[in-house]
């Protein structure tokens, strides 16, 4: 008896919510406000039209039917999708302020609680971002420039690769250590030895997180946030990993507080603590311990995994295209030689290498659908009305793989960034770091690392694949939040 009435109640609730959803849906389309899109089903929205293993491809297919601006229901929430350079540029650049909100990303909200720089909004975001950019730019900490730090790390990376004695080696781990160490040197003031256990644990967890975030399961959780609290699954592993790194940062921060010299900031943490001290009477200040921990955790994970995945994917592409690698090495020998480390000044005399680094980023399409944006106010966009708070997905794939700007976009070809005379050719379509107000905070640092690490490796080693280059598969194994390259091994043969 009881069970029957329970079932009935459930059915009623479902019917009512379906009706409600349908009427809301009709309303928004009836007035022609929201862009068109596939009809959503109750509760699950357009989930059946999406391949959670490759959302980017689903968006591409839907844009063929609905055009460059369409509405998609991820679960019960409508999301506006922008596909293609024109629409993405119009939103992120021409109407940058209105589109500068951070959209809903439920798996992260649980951890970030609106703090930090990646998932925050409004004043919290603006002030934290301004501070972080300034601190990275005025990098007079310990009077060593960021370039010094990256060069030092490049030398350590080369030394570490020598120890592999030219035997088959999976570079995943070591390519995570190098960018992570650059970030550590900026945040904690010192780099770690590649054998340091704390360091290894930290990197292992960051590696795991990007895999989890890119899995189909997390894409599902983001559409159905209830799952996060009530179902077991890899998202819980993610939360544990984040808790681990947060407690590690807290430790470090306490050490910093004890040894702080206000007139001599050593690193990012010191700068933040000084700022906290300056604003201690301001009740509204965003400079709090909680925000410090989340901000550092943001800079840390964003700055490690993205660069490390790009390096790893890049080496795989260089293995697959030995003719490209040979031309880069020739340019390194001509411009840098063997007797000094490459530096950023060399880049302008190395158009081919510069093009290769750009092409690696374009081809791998690291963050296919960007991080979700949100409307900061009601926006009139083309002929639609996008209400304040609405989540906006921008397809970066559609820009990086635009076939007019980059003929044969699915082919790896450095000529995409070279003119007829072999000079480097800039492109407005190069949005690997996104664009507009929320463009990647660490873009300058990331570009420097990619250039210096790739050139240092190729200056010192010949890359030898274990299989015939034409048998190397360069398709990503995951294409969720990020594009993750397949596992592989290679030999680093000293030059």
TrEMBL record:
Annotated transmembrane regions: none
Reactions catalysed, as given in the entry: (4Z,7Z,10Z,13Z,16Z,19Z)-docosahexaenoate + reduced [NADPH--hemoprotein reductase] + O2 = 21-hydroxy-(4Z,7Z,10Z,13Z,16Z,19Z)-docosahexaenoate + oxidized [NADPH--hemoprotein reductase] + H2O + H(+); (5Z,8Z,11Z)-eicosatrienoate + reduced [NADPH--hemoprotein reductase] + O2 = 19-hydroxy-(5Z,8Z,11Z)-eicosatrienoate + oxidized [NADPH--hemoprotein reductase] + H2O + H(+); dodecanoate + reduced [NADPH--hemoprotein reductase] + O2 = 11-hydroxydodecanoate + oxidized [NADPH--hemoprotein reductase] + H2O + H(+); (5Z,8Z,11Z,14Z,17Z)-eicosapentaenoate + reduced [NADPH--hemoprotein reductase] + O2 = 19-hydroxy-(5Z,8Z,11Z,14Z,17Z)-eicosapentaenoate + oxidized [NADPH--hemoprotein reductase] + H2O + H(+)
Domain of life assignment: Eukaryota
One function term, GO molecular function aspect: oxidoreductase activity, acting on paired donors, with incorporation or reduction of molecular oxygen, reduced flavin or flavoprotein as one donor, and incorporation of one atom of oxygen
Subcellular compartments: Endoplasmic reticulum membrane; Microsome membrane; Mitochondrion inner membrane
Pfam families per record: p450 (PF00067)
Regulation acting on activity, per entry: The omega-1 hydroxylase activity is stimulated by cytochrome b5.
Any one cellular-component term (Gene Ontology): mitochondrial inner membrane
Record bears the keyword Heme: yes
Keywords from the UniProt entry: Endoplasmic reticulum, Fatty acid metabolism, Heme, Iron, Lipid metabolism, Membrane, Metal-binding, Microsome, Mitochondrion, Mitochondrion inner membrane, Monooxygenase, NADP, Oxidoreductase
Bilayer topology term: Peripheral membrane protein
Keyword NADP: yes
Pathway the protein contributes to: Lipid metabolism; fatty acid metabolism
InterPro entries from the UniProt entry: Cyt_P450, Cyt_P450_CS, Cyt_P450_E_grp-I, Cyt_P450_E_grp-I_CYP2E-like, Cyt_P450_sf, Cytochrome_P450_fam2
Binding-site residues, heme: 440
GO process terms (BP): fatty acid metabolic process; xenobiotic metabolic process
Cofactor(s) demanded: heme
Entry EC number(s): 1.14.13.n7, 1.14.14.1
PANTHER family, sorted: CYTOCHROME P450 2C9 (PTHR24300:SF400), CYTOCHROME P450 508A4-RELATED (PTHR24300)
Subunit structure and binding partners: Interacts with chaperones HSP70 and HSP90; this interaction is required for initial targeting to mitochondria.
Family indicated by similarity: Belongs to the cytochrome P450 family.
Reported function: A cytochrome P450 monooxygenase involved in the metabolism of fatty acids. Mechanistically, uses molecular oxygen inserting one oxygen atom into a substrate, and reducing the second into a water molecule, with two electrons provided by NADPH via cytochrome P450 reductase (NADPH--hemoprotein reductase). Catalyzes the hydroxylation of carbon-hydrogen bonds. Hydroxylates fatty acids specifically at the omega-1 position displaying the highest catalytic activity for saturated fatty acids. May be involved in the oxidative metabolism of xenobiotics.
Listed name of the protein: Cytochrome P450 2E1
